[in-house]
Amino acid sequence: DQQVKQNSPSLSVQEGRISILNCDYTNSMFDYFLWYKKYPAEGPTFLISISSIKDKNEDGRFTVFLNKSAKHLSLHIVPSQPGDSAVYFCAASSNSGYALNFGKGTSLLVTP
Amino acid sequence: EPEVTQTPSHQVTQMGQEVILRCVPISNHLYFYWYRQILGQKVEFLVSFYNNEISEKSEIFDDQFSVERPDGSNFTLKIRSTKLEDSAMYFCASSGLGRGGYNEQFFGPGTRLTVL
């Protein structure tokens, strides 16, 4: 069952422009959301998170937006850099457990 | 910066054999996890471990799997009798109380398990 969905398997963006990665979820019990970045042959690297009590969290070039009514979150990267090229995973958890539920990932390519 | 480490990076085994995957979580973390990613699929939760016992497990984590914290630093995943479908990348993760999030989990580089 796909409780966390990333419907775009890939995204290509020019260097310096904004990258927007989207994520939808179905479980209304999810209250914490995370974005991870993954390079080939490495483990997921934590990027940024947001609690359901907020609608925005910012950390440098990365901003996550949460729309609870739409069960949708997005990660904005501004400005995009070639080193941002990786697979980005959206993950969610609920306060009833510790498991992270991952989406399938979006492969971001930032071209010079 | 502290990180989660895993050994070995690649393990090849014959079907039916037992394997033990090892992890050293971040030293001041209290919660430990195992996930797996079958090639081409999403990362899937297997088990979480806190205070020397399993706190949560998924349907994947059946009787063939077990976890242990044999000493103050290592966290292991044992698969008793491996099957072909156990071939996957296995990730260990840990989390603590830092950075304001209660379960920001930090992942190791993974162990690629190949069952022949």
What can be said about this structure in brief?
The complex is a heterodimer of chains A (112) and B (116). Chain A has 112 residues and is mostly beta strands. Chain A is built from no helices and eleven strands.
Between the first and last Cα atoms of chain B, what is the distance in angstroms? Answer: 37 Å
Helix coverage percent of chain A = under 10%
Assembly state (oligomeric): heterodimer
> How many strands appear in the DSSP assignment of chain B?
11
Number of helices of chain B: 0
Query: Rounded to an integer, what's the Rg of chain A over CA atoms?
Result: 13 Å
Q: List the secondary-structure elements of chain A in sequence, H or E.
A: EEEEEEEEEEE
How would you characterize the largest beta sheet of chain B? 7 strands, mixed
Average pLDDT confidence of chain B is 91
Main sheet record of chain A: 6 strands, mixed
